[in-house]
Specification:
The structure is a single chain. This protein is of the alpha+beta class. The protein is built from 2 helices and 3 strands, in the order H-E-E-E-H. The protein has one domain: Signal recognition particle alu RNA binding heterodimer, srp9/1 (2-Layer Sandwich), CATH 3.30.720. Helices cover about 30% and strands about 25% of the residues. A 3-stranded antiparallel sheet has the order 1-2-3, with helices on one face. Strand 2 and strand 3 form a beta hairpin.
């Protein structure tokens, strides 16, 4: 198996959520940096809020990424109905 293929089988997951400095020009506090991994690839982001709120937001991002990776579930196979010919 290649690394790329095995990475596709692995779900996204939160690696860490740690306190961070505010972005340039930011005057408020309570910033956190989160790291999300998918195989050997990592993505990071910053968000303002409490540790609980930022962790919850990162968990929501991970859930959405994993749903997207697996494809849309629960969709009904919609079949369009034929349009009626209307003569005026």
């Amino acid at each position: 198996m290649t690394d790329e293929f095995s990475a596709m089988e692995q779900p996204y997951e939160i690696v860490s959520v740690q306190r961070a400095e505010p972005p340039p020009g930011g005057k408020s506090s309570n910033w956190y940096r989160y790291v999300i991994a998918h195989g050997t690839t990592t993505n990071d982001g910053c968000r303002q809020g409490s540790l609980k709120a930022v962790t919850g937001a990162a968990e929501e991002i991970v859930a959405q990424l994993n749903d997207r990776r697996l494809g849309k579930r629960g969709r009904v196979n919609l079949v369009p109905t034929p349009k009626k010919n209307i003569h005026i």
